């Protein structure tokens, strides 16, 4: 349908959607969306519109104001706004964009994660993914097809994933996250190896102190705690799927003695390795 809003050009399209109860509980869902061509000097000021807004600039540029700060977005960039809060956007020149007001149970978490890293204007690492999924959603509304909320939610999820990746690329700690991911992969592939702090820090190419602090920040666990969790998880698997003795399993996973293994296992799982082996399969 056509918009009746001032300074929106006649070739613009707008669509509205009332989400089902299931969508409101489980999905990302659009509230209104469209493909707009703006005339010069368009200016919107709004206290709130209960949703989150993504706008992909296809042509021109626009200014946005959120939290008392002004930003400028240009062709190829995406604007992400929490419309529950006061906001405005405007330009003294015309611009074109694809836009979707959406919401859903995890929308605020996605918004906060993305915007805390990159701000409300995002330089996309994969513009095609975002544009393609936005067009798919708009086409679903512009055609006579049945509105399929689960597929639309999937498209919105693809868009938000692309935003997370783009935001991560803009963060200086992104490379550190990749390094730590490599270390955790090594730990999980070699649970019985020598995994002391100096060895792991060496794998990361960092000092032991800086590595330990960074590892805890990214994984939520100390290196020692992560290694112990990996070894106990491996032990649970071997106890249920092999005939190896308790001692053999403990020694193969880097515990110095059978007693040390049993103590660590009981502390984490609440029962001894033998009782775990004899318990019903989880």
Automatic annotation (TrEMBL):
GO molecular function annotation: DNA-binding transcription factor activity; heme binding; sequence-specific DNA binding
Short name of any one Pfam family annotated for the protein: HTH_18
Entry-linked PROSITE patterns: CYTOCHROME_B5_1, HTH_ARAC_FAMILY_1, HTH_ARAC_FAMILY_2
Keywords, alphabetical: DNA-binding, Transcription, Transcription regulation
Cross-referenced InterPro entries: AraC-bd, Cyt_B5_heme-BS, Homeodomain-like_sf, HTH-like, HTH_AraC, HTH_AraC-typ_CS, Tscrpt_reg_AraC-type_HTH
Domain HTH araC/xylS-type: 181-279
Gene3D superfamilies to which the protein is assigned, alphabetical: Homeodomain-like, Regulatory protein AraC
Name of this protein: AraC-type DNA-binding protein
Native organism: Anaerocolumna jejuensis DSM 15929
